[in-house]
């Protein structure tokens, strides 16, 4: 894996840990806003919201936009052997569900941003974003971050970059009930234990990765009959 891939992933991981933001992103797509009594049984890691992202479309994105967002977010949070990236964590699924629910007001923002991204890539490389080499994708993302993509009017290039970056972080580290963090991929990456029912004083003072029990998500906590009494 390229050195800049590892550097980019480590930067995002450090950002999350220092911000204490791994517990959740604070959104619940409308279709999955359930009370504990309404929650579906079984392990949340295997039953987080999901839908087909194949040749048809998702909840909001069409096929082409799905491929673009999947490639874009993977460059922001690249995977490596033993270290999950955006694809592994289902970040595309998270963003797609959010845009069909709690983030519905950003639908036009994404549509216009993706159209401008495509215009920029075709003008500079004569190809769409998904057909670029990884190094070229990184050049495009850097151009967006530093407001060097003149094709962007609204949203501006930095606005689009920062929004997708934030949503990538959310999709990596929010509770799986929101559609990302598949199989607790993000939490395992940073050693976050999830919604444990009980933390001992030793647990609270420990600075090492949590090892005492299995990682627990909100779905599993909601399904616990003892917590409903």
Tags for this entry?
229 residues, 10 helices, 0% strand, disordered C terminus
Rounded to an integer, what's the Rg over CA atoms? 18 Å
Average pLDDT works out at 78
Pattern of helices and strands: HHHHHHHHHH
Q: How many helical elements?
A: 10
Number of domains: 1
Major sheet size, sense and barrel closure: none
Distance between the termini: 50 Å
Structural class: mainly alpha
Query: Using DSSP, what is the number of strands?
Result: 0
- The portion of residues forming beta strands comes to under 5%
Please tell me what the overall shape is: elongated
The helicity comes to: 40-55%
Which residue ranges are poorly predicted, with pLDDT under 50 across at least 5 consecutive positions?
16-47, 225-229
Describe, in plain words, how this protein is organized in 3D.
The chain has 229 residues and is mostly helical. It has one domain (3-227). The chain contains ten helices and no strands. The protein has helices at 3-19, 63-76, 86-89, 91-99, 107-125, 134-145, 157-173, 185-190, 201-205, 218-223. Helix 4 packs across helix 7 and helix 6 crosses helix 7 (157-173). The model is unreliable at 16-47 and 225-229 (pLDDT under 50).
């Amino acid at each position: 894996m390229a050195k800049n891939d590892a550097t980019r992933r480590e930067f995002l991981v450090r950002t999350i840990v220092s911000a204490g933001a791994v517990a959740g992103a604070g959104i619940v797509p409308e279709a999955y806003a359930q009370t504990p009594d309404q929650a579906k049984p079984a392990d949340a890691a295997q039953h987080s919201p999901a839908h087909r992202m194949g040749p048809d479309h998702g909840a909001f994105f069409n096929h082409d936009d799905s491929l673009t967002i999947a490639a874009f977010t993977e460059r922001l949070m690249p995977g490596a052997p033993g270290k999950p990236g955006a694809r592994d964590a289902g970040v595309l699924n998270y963003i797609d569900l959010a845009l069909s629910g709690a983030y519905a007001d950003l639908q036009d923002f994404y549509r216009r941003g993706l159209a401008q991204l495509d215009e920029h890539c075709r003008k500079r490389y004569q190809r769409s974003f998904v057909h670029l080499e990884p190094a070229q994708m990184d050049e495009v993302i850097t151009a967006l971050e530093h407001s060097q993509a003149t094709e962007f009017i609204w949203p501006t290039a930095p606005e689009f970059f920062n929004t997708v970056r934030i949503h990538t972080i959310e999709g990596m580290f929010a509770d799986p009930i929101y559609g990302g963090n598949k199989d607790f991929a993000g939490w395992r990456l940073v050693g976050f234990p999830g919604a444990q029912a009980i933390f001992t004083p030793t647990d609270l003072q420990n600075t090492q990765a949590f090892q005492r029990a299995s990682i627990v998500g909100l779905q599993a906590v909601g399904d616990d009959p003892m917590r409903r009494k």
